[in-house]
Design goal:
Layout lengths: L5 H8 L6 H10 L11 H8 L3 H8 L7 H8 L2 E3 L7 H4 L7 E6 L8 E5 L6 H16 L3 E4 L5 H11 L4 E4 L13 H10 L1 E4 L11 H12 L2 E4 L7 H11 L3 E4 L10 H8 L3 E2 L3 H7 L17 H8 L7 E2 H8 L3 H13 L3 E4 L3 E4 L2
Parallel strand pairs: 3-4, 3-7, 4-5, 5-6, 7-8, 8-9
Antiparallel strand pairs: 1-2, 2-6, 10-12, 11-12
Length: about 350
């Protein structure tokens, strides 16, 4: 790909009808990309299944863009013509022509591992995502996810909490925060991680764009870990794309009574590696990740062990339930639970509930 094609790549990336499959055909047929200008509209219409108007835009994309807009994009976009373009993503069959970015682009060249799953995560799922993220980050992984509710958010937050690198791939324009309640997370990712989008600025959240986004999540990553997924979850699309891209697929098992486990259990049946802990991922990717020496965790003070043992990793326990188990009162448990939370042993959940972390 010749460097003079950079503006063309940016211009083509701004044409919403150029789907990944169409851009793949474009790159296969024209190198240098400038040669598209000499192609007949009829040929482009047949090759890419375009209308006459769309074929005209493909022949002359730069004439349709305001120079000021292009100037404002050049420094915040990485294209296939650029050396810093994410190396693993460059290898897939339909890489984005250009990626808009905010943050540290060099993170995309690291040992990326995707951690994704259900938007309606259970306490168990979010807890599993956080635990795996922490251990994968300790092994040198850059955590990739989609900034969605549930598992994605848990993975990003866990990475940020342990000062590990993390990348969010959006299904919207780079300037659109979705969901809106993740505005703070988005800002933090821009400041301390990396945010990527192949969609033009201003692109709102549209259902058809998220499967397109998912191929970038898997394409950036050596392996994809699915933590929770229903039988119709978009995470299964990510898993399928990862397999098609020749990348490793991992799945975390769950309860047979949970709908959120249906998708992950099916993946395991179809050949995904079952993940009990981060070592199961590390063992499959020895050239990418390095098993970190496990530090001995300090045991909680003796007087707090009874309270800790009353909690589970799978679901939140209400304060009244904990009090009944340890034969105490809710008021008397306020201080012990706070100490356990500050020590990283438990996490407080909405509704006066607590879940064990380790």
């Amino acid at each position: 790909m010749h460097i003079q094609n950079r503006d063309l790549l940016i211009a083509y990336s701004l044409l919403p009808f150029l789907t990944p499959n169409r851009t793949r055909l474009l790159l296969e047929c024209f190198d240098p990309l400038d040669a598209v200008a000499q192609a007949s509209p009829k040929f482009l219409m047949g090759l890419l299944s375009l209308t006459p108007e769309q074929a005209a835009q493909v022949k002359n994309p730069l004439t349709l863009l305001q120079v000021g807009w292009m100037d404002s994009l050049r420094d915040r976009v990485v294209t296939l013509a650029d050396a810093p373009y994410p190396p693993l993503l460059r290898e897939i069959i339909d890489p984005p022509l250009a990626l808009h970015f905010r943050g540290d682009l060099s993170l995309a060249a690291g040992a990326c591992i995707a951690v994704v799953g259900s938007r309606r995560a259970t306490v168990y799922g979010a807890n599993a995502a956080r635990a795996l993220t922490r251990d994968l980050a300790a092994a040198g992984a850059v955590i990739v996810s989609g900034m969605a509710r549930g598992i994605d958010a848990a993975a990003h937050e866990a990475a940020l909490e342990c000062n590990a690198p993390t990348i969010a791939v959006l299904g919207t324009g780079i300037d659109i925060v979705y969901p809106k309640e993740h505005a703070r997370l988005y800002r933090t990712l821009c400041e301390r991680g990396l945010v990527l989008s192949e969609f033009p600025p201003g692109t709102p959240p549209m259902p058809e764009n998220f499967p397109v986004r998912n191929r970038v999540i898997s394409g950036l990553s050596s392996g994809t870990v699915i933590v929770e997924a229903t039988s119709r979850s978009g995470s299964l699309i990510t898993a399928r794309m990862a397999a098609e891209q020749g990348r490793e697929v991992f799945a975390v098992p769950g309860s047979i009574f949970s709908q959120n486990s249906e998708g992950t259990h099916r993946l395991i049946q179809y050949g995904a590696k079952l993940v009990h802990d981060a070592d199961d991922v590390i063992d499959e990717l020895p050239r990418v990740l390095t098993r970190a020496a496990k530090s001995e965790l300090a045991a909680p003070p003796e007087e707090l062990r009874g309270v800790l043992d009353a909690l589970t990793h799978e679901e939140g326990s209400h304060l009244d339930t904990i009090a009944a188990k340890v034969k105490s009162t809710p008021a008397a448990l306020a201080e012990p639970l706070l100490q356990l939370e500050l020590g990283g042993w438990v996490r407080a959940l909405p509704g006066a509930r607590y879940v064990r972390l380790r």
